[in-house]
């Protein structure tokens, strides 16, 4: 019995080692913002997007990375994304205000891995809608370039509060105007009540 248990334990260790060795390698953290291993973007687009995301970080301190791969090679999308995020550590230390857009060409899968510091403005539900409504339609037509460009623009807009879960763009300034209009309307409705109450008090 002891010998059999030892053999089973040894086989289990071999199996675990085999699965680990066959796992998709996590690349080192990049020096730029675009890591296009799947070759979805031309050089000019990579250069343009890299500059755009660098300027965005300089302005807001938020970091956005794009990483494309040919396939997951049998890996779990969620597990690989989490391992990549842990190694790359997008965002500033202590703020965790970064995110990574992962694209797997052959598997037709996209994931937006969001740091804790941005989850309040870009929750999973909203990230999923951006993938389905903005990026996926372009990818379905093989237009990866426009899908990535449009996706990044909407992600930045969502972080700035210009894109809601319903897909409607609302700038912070417009929202402030809407609130002011509502307050004016409420006060207008309450004014007759205030006048009536005052008159009643006067005649008592």
Short description:
The chain is of the alpha/beta class and 204 residues long. The chain contains six helices and four strands; from the N terminus they run αβαβαββααα. A hairpin with a 4-residue loop joins strand 3 (98-104) and strand 4 (109-114).
Write the topology of this structure:
Blueprint: H1 2-21, E1 34-36, H2 43-60, E2 63-69, H3 77-88, E3 98-104, E4 109-114, H4 124-140, H5 144-159, H6 172-203
Parallel strand pairs: 1-2, 2-3
Antiparallel strand pairs: 3-4
Helix pairs in contact: 4-5
Description:
The chain is 56% helix and 11% strand. The chain has helices at residues 2-21, 43-60, 77-88, 124-140, 144-159, 172-203, and strands spanning 34-36, 63-69, 98-104, 109-114. The longest helix is centred in the last third of the chain and has 32 residues, at 172-203. It is α/β, with parallel strands linked by helices and 204 residues long. A four-stranded mixed sheet has the order 1-2-3-4. The model is unreliable at 2-8, 14-21, 170-186 and 193-204 (pLDDT under 50).
């Amino acid at each position: 019995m002891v010998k059999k248990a030892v053999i089973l334990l040894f086989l289990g260790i071999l199996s675990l080692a085999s699965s680990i060795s066959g796992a998709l390698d996590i690349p080192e953290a990049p020096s730029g913002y675009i890591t296009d291993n799947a070759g979805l973007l031309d050089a000019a687009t990579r250069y343009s997007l890299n500059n755009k995301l660098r300027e965005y970080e300089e302005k807001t301190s938020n970091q956005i990375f794009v990483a494309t791969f040919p396939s997951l090679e049998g890996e779990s999308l969620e597990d690989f994304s989490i391992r990549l995020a842990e190694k790359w550590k997008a965002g500033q230390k202590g703020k965790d205000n970064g995110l990574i857009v992962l694209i797997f060409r052959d598997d037709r899968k996209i994931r937006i891995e969001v740091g804790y510091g941005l989850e309040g403005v870009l929750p999973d539900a909203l990230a999923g809608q951006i993938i389905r409504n903005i990026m996926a339609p372009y990818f379905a037509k093989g237009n990866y370039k426009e899908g990535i460009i449009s996706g990044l623009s909407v992600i930045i807009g969502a972080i700035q509060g210009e894109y809601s879960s319903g897909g409607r763009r609302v700038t912070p300034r417009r929202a402030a105007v809407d609130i002011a209009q509502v307050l004016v309307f409420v006060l207008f409705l309450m004014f007759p009540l205030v006048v009536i109450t005052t008159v009643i008090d006067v005649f008592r």
